[in-house]
Write a structure and sequence with these properties.
about 375 residues; alpha/beta; Arc Repressor Mutant, subunit A; Rossmann fold; 3 domains; six-stranded parallel β-sheet; six-stranded mixed β-sheet; about 45% helix; about 20% strand; elongated
Amino acid sequence: MRDPYLIKSVAHAAQLLAAFEAPGEALSPREISARTGLSRGIVHRLLYTLGHHHVVEHMENNRYRPLYRRLTKTLWRIGYGAPGIDTLFTRAVTQSLRIAADRGGEIEILTLDHCFKPDVALHNAAQFIRERVELVIDYQIDEQVGAVTANLFREANIPVIVINNPQPGATYFGANNYEAGLIGGRYLGKWARARWLGEVDQIVMLDLCRAGTVPRTRLAGMVYGIREILGQVSKKIPVVYLDGGGRFESSWQAMRKHLRTGNRHRTLIGAVNDNSALGALRAFEEAGRAEDCAVMGQNGALEARKELRKNHSRLIGSVAYFPEKYGDGLVQLALDLLNRRFVAPAIFTPHKLLTSHNVDHIYPNDSLMGYQEVLT
């Protein structure tokens, strides 16, 4: 029997809006039709009307997203394992995650800091389990500790997203390490070919051994990129790996010690992150040998961007990872997992080479943020 009080067009509009399961989710008309059971024609007319009244937004690739905030009675409780190492990069990741979660309104985040200590990381994992969080976002730099905590979460049936450092069974979000390394290595090779006619005495890579094998592939990518550009002659150039611990101070000390061991001059330096790159550069400057090196960082952090703006700096580039944009991607990935939607096992963030020539174009607002340095 037909309900005389039911307005069919309003009911259809409500069905369409209910198809969007997360704030900011973008759907095509075909996907909306499949979720609601409404015909493509009705969906098209509803989207046109709702768009005209600014209820939904028409995006590129013929996708739509709601412009209203859907009320929910409960929040998803998510544990965030902060990395325990305080740099501008890690701070930007954490801040962007909090902003994205607050904006969406469907996630409540419990943050526990690893303090860069294995025992603290294990204690935090146990607390996440006791608190019955429904998902964990883990920024764990130590490969061995990450394997242990991943097993604890798997036994507790808690899905895990890991940032930049893979763990067994977890969904990966972050750098395409080899690709990022390749971008930096090729630029180092081109720089050496143009400035030194390809005559290089050594290649030094600043590692972060605790992070394990996968993040180290960005160093492998840099070495391959250098050799690709310099050709056969580069096979005779020795490659030295130093453990800089991912920190400015320890990388500075490691490079200072290395400089005392030999008289090799023209040195191409690749680093696992910008802190290590700047530490290595400082060692060469301290020794009065800045002209003997060219340094490539990774992350595109604020402290590296400051250095790139200096005249004649031997930090010739840094591959940007855009941590300030991580939050939106992490929140969307978390909601997809929690709502049991299909996700790829690895979500890679975009990379772009920053140099003195383009840093002001890509990051024009740095001067508004200030140049506070956090070199740890």
